[in-house]
């Protein structure tokens, strides 16, 4: 492969290109030239345009196909024009495979942002082949915002682990680059990004975190808050990944499988031996409970519901069945029964 850097290259542009090359290399175990198509999710904003420019450069030298996916959510009057302009900019970057998909965003109580994200990822899933990879332009500032939101919600270690740099076929090469660096890379390459008005709309919680909370923290605590939050996310992710490896074998070992001689009660589809798990540290026991609920009913227990199940393990006095969100849990003697379906 030809060198990614040239003496005259602007440092910000060099950082974006190296970030893409390193991300693809890690994903492909050192052989990124064996990848299928490298897709970039393109909105027309600075992050995605800088990402596409870097990806087009890197893939051209790797001999790998690069493609842009533009999802038009139809949420703004000029969304069709924004999508068309993004497609034109992609072609200006010598990306020949440009795909624009218009979707209908239907909000069903989860919020507009979540509904748009679900529609967008459905498109990505349809477009990706088995050997393909998708690059998204989340940056260091996005990561800091995500960690703050996780802390505010008290959602546990996985929540403050933030945005994963790699998950399945999805890579986020820019998580170590801040927003000013990315914007500088656009300017250095004479790329003019679109500015999404939703990113200025303080009706959205994430926008308030970006425009009010993080600047306030920087003002009160000094510079470097965003970088510290990103380091916290990495440490939390390492710990969460370790727990994720520990828990499944422990659940497997504690599972009681029904037999003809010893069947499970009606409706019960998962059962744990209490004596096998009650001595585990709290951090592991709670994860074992959540994994058992997931296996039984496909639900993710809240922290409060997890604590209720733990009380059945440690402080059982013949309590009645727990009616939780999507799953029922009952203890009988030394067995913990899980049944799908409960209050909604």
Q: Tags for this entry?
A:
alpha/beta, 6-stranded mixed beta sheet, Rossmann fold, 2 domains, Uridine Diphospho-n-acetylenolpyruvylglucosamine Reductase, domain 3, 344 residues, 4-stranded antiparallel beta sheet
Shape: elongated
* Mean pLDDT reading: 91
Cα separation of the termini: 55 Å
Structural class: alpha/beta
Which fold does the CATH topology of the largest domain refer to? Rossmann fold
**Rg from Cα:** 24 Å
Domains (count): 2
- Percent helix: 40-55%
Number of helices: 12
Strand order of the largest sheet: 3-2-1-4-6-5
Strand content: 5-15%
Please tally the β strands and state the result.
10
Explain how this protein is built.
It is built from 12 helices and 10 strands. It is of the alpha/beta class. It folds into 2 domains: 11-239, HUPs (Rossmann fold, 3-Layer(aba) Sandwich); 255-340, Uridine Diphospho-n-acetylenolpyruvylglucosamine Reductase, domain 3, CATH 3.30.465.60. The strands form 2 sheets. The protein has a 6-stranded mixed β-sheet, sandwiched between helices.
At a glance:
The protein has helices at 11-27, 46-62, 79-92, 112-127, 140-153, 157-160, 179-188, 205-221, 225-254, 274-277, 282-297, 303-314, and strands at residues 38-41, 66-72, 97-102, 133-135, 166-167, 170-171, 270-273, 322-323, 327-332, 335-340. With 344 residues, it is of the alpha/beta class.
How are the secondary structure elements laid out?
Elements: H1 11-27, E1 38-41, H2 46-62, E2 66-72, H3 79-92, E3 97-102, H4 112-127, E4 133-135, H5 140-153, H6 157-160, E5 166-167, E6 170-171, H7 179-188, H8 205-221, H9 225-254, E7 270-273, H10 274-277, H11 282-297, H12 303-314, E8 322-323, E9 327-332, E10 335-340
